[in-house]
Amino acid sequence: MTISQVCSKAKLQIKKTSRSPQLDAEILLSFVLNKPKEFLYANPDYHLTQNQRSKFQTLISRRAAGLPIAYLVGHKEFYGLDFIINKNVLIPRPETELMVDEVLNHLRFTPCSLPLTLIDIGTGSGCIPIAIAKNMNTELRIMIYGTDISTKALPVARQNAKFHKVEQKIKFIQSDLLKNILNSLFIIHNSFIIITANLPYLTPAQYRANPNLKYEPRQALIAGPYGLKYYHVLIQQTKTLTRTTHYSLPITLFLEIDPSQTKKIQKVIHHHLPNAQISLKKDLSGRNRLVIIKLNHK
Question: Tens of pLDDT along 262-278?
């Protein structure tokens, strides 16, 4: 069978479980042939070998069952960078690129002479701190950490950091949110602190309503009945950080949320951090996606 024929057949097989069956078929066939998609367009009459057809059909069958493309091919693009992905980490979402944009913009206005500590909480594949490290001003005095409670996720993050040649810039640590960071020597003395977090924020109902999520790690998605369980703890830990260390230098948090949680998370922040400055950033769909919290900012 030719490229054109197998693609047409594959589209029909996956159209019920995929929003983009044509694109998915092309990605999987490019993966099997180890060729760019342009090769498919330029060679529609290219005949696949029996082995290639068999591999392609296996992938299409798994995609028809709902397995995400990123897990099938083992990688996903994020912020123009290619990341190794497996079942132990959440698949990076395009909307999370907004967080990287805002952190980089924040860093542009930070004098290079000031020491910085950046901590990415729930780092997963490491896509957020790695994208920041690859695009920030190299003259910044900054230490970057990625924490995750999952010991299976951290090797993926380290592998990605090595692949992108930033393994010397980022230290990955097993930690329940900020637990192993508080009262530790990780935070640079007298440094400004930046905390990024794309923590689980789905409710059980939201999770059940999207069956395609069943292949991703459940603990990276669900966060209690209101979806704010982990942000509640993180904000409490941030309060503890400011109290136990008498930390008076600026702390900035960047938190990704579901748009429906806007009012609830603002209440949580005001309750624990009454002096915090809060701002919201919208995603490309015009919905609140990022909460920025500033503490000790003049």
Answer: 999 999 999 999 999 99
